[in-house]
Write a structure and sequence with these properties.
462 residues, Growth Hormone, Chain: A, 20 helices
Length: 462
């Protein structure tokens, strides 16, 4: 059923109208109009946000499922540590590559329509993993199935682009933080599912982990089909993507997102395997590692909306700088613990990295609309039309959300490749930790130099 609210304001509440037929899209959507928002817009946006979070959450679980399945791959699978880190990197890479087309799919097919399709597509990697995971399967087959799990990574981009269109500028930090945080929770949840399977069915039954998600995927797709909306105003704008691709600030923000989200998803995939390899005496069985792997991703996911809220209040660049400085300190703790082989300190440092990367995810993503809003204000001050400047800011924001999300996810690939190379030549991840420390230092300097230094221009303090 379509949701139609006239410019004068329909007497019918949009939230009620939206419950009928959904063959057409919402034709009038004005989130910046406070009267419209209070009367009907907020309820419609909130309903779409809830269902978007559900679908994205399951997508994240499917995407990061191999972080759990790798713990089940014992000696009978004949895969060394380097081979396992390759398996962890592949779904990350595929998910990152899919984020850009998934972003454009929302406007092309409709937010509701694409959510239904992309949710059902998650059945492919889950069913495949449930079929092939058994001793004797070839490594090439595992690589192919791991690649298929990458479709779960694309769901984030389409979900964020969709929710961005539903919410007004003043609430984007909160809405995008909740949407992303709820999706990120899929990482610890699938690890808890893996722990439950190990505890009940034993480590010899990895196929049960993906099969648990089959009915959940169907329910998510059904909920989206029945209760989500398409926005008729959503349009793909190839020109906006070309514009942001030529904008230096797009690449700066994308670099910062590599440091925050790339760390979160990369550590999420690698943490359990790092524990098994570096502290193999303490984690000689999958269940021992599984007891701890979910904690960091859980806390990091929960604080992502907090990062968005802090950025709404203090500015995204300032919160992001604090985060990177703290992440550098956290890596220092991990490195010191690694050298002293102190497991408790190592765990504290790594969990802190998850929490800080979650905060940074929210603050960095909040910088995207802030950058283009600052550009719009500068243009208006120079004599440009305010409505045109605001419209340009919105379209460029949507384009950069997709671009930065795709580029940032490749940070997870870099994390796993860094661990692969470190453990390929020894039993310590120290070279990887040094690389992370250098990366966070660079991100800190870039954030300050571009957005916070005195006389930094119109972008200062975004």
């Amino acid at each position: 059923m379509s949701t139609v609210v006239t410019e004068e304001g329909s007497a019918k509440d949009a939230a009620t109208v939206a419950g009928a037929s959904r063959s057409r899209a919402i034709t009038d959507w004005r989130p910046e109009d406070e009267e419209f928002w209070e009367r009907s817009g907020a309820a419609v946006a909130r309903r779409n946000l809830v269902l978007s979070v559900l679908s994205e959450h399951i997508g994240f679980s499917v995407w990061s499922m191999w972080s759990v399945l790798l713990l089940f791959l014992g000696p009978e699978y004949h895969i060394d540590a380097a081979g396992k880190f390759t398996l962890a990197a592949l779904p990350t890479a595929v998910g990152a590559a899919l984020r850009l087309p998934y972003t454009f799919a929302v406007a092309r097919f409709g937010g509701r329509n694409w959510t239904v399709f992309s949710a059902l597509l998650l059945l492919v990697p889950t069913v495949l993993a449930g079929v092939v995971l058994r001793p004797g399967v070839s490594y090439g087959t595992l690589l192919a199935v791991a690649c298929a799990a990458g479709v779960g990574g694309g769901n984030f981009a389409s979900s964020m682009a969709n929710i961005n269109a539903f919410y007004p500028q003043r609430l984007k930090g909160w809405a995008l933080g909740v949407n992303a945080g709820g999706g990120n929770l899929g990482v610890p949840v699938v690890q808890l599912v893996g722990l439950s399977v190990i505890a009940t069915a034993g480590a010899a039954q990895p196929r049960l982990v993906p099969l648990v998600y089959v009915p959940l995927i169907v329910l998510a797709a059904l909920g989206a089909a029945l209760r989500m909306d398409n926005l008729a105003s959503a349009r793909n704008d190839g020109r906006a993507l070309r514009e942001v691709a030529r904008d230096p600030h797009s690449w700066v923000v994308s670099l910062l997102y590599i440091g925050t989200f790339g760390s979160f998803i990369g550590f999420g995939f690698a943490f359990g395997l790092v524990l098994q390899v570096q502290f193999h005496e303490q984690f000689d069985t999958p269940v021992k590692a599984a007891y701890l792997t979910f904690l960091g991703p859980l806390l990091g996911s929960l604080v992502r909306p907090v990062g968005g809220r802090l950025a709404d209040r203090w500015g995204g660049a300032r919160v992001t700088l604090w985060t990177f400085a703290a992440m550098a300190a956290g890596v220092g703790v991990v490195l010191a613990a690694s050298r002293r082989e102190s497991l408790p300190v190592f765990l504290v440092g790594f969990v802190a990295l998850f929490v800080l990367s979650g905060l940074g995810n929210g603050s960095t993503y909040r910088m995207i609309p802030a950058v283009f809003r600052a550009r719009a204000h500068a243009a208006v001050a120079a004599g440009a039309d305010a409505e045109t400047a605001e419209r340009d800011a919105r379209r460029r924001t949507s384009a950069l959300i997709g671009l930065a999300g795709a580029i940032g996810a490749f940070g997870g690939v870099l994390v796993n490749l860094a661990f692969r190379q470190s453990f390929l030549h020894g039993e310590s991840g120290d070279p990887a930790y040094w690389a992370f420390l250098a990366a966070y230092a660079v991100c800190s300097v870039v954030t300050w130099a571009v957005y916070l230094r005195p006389r930094g221009g119109p972008m200062r303090g975004v």
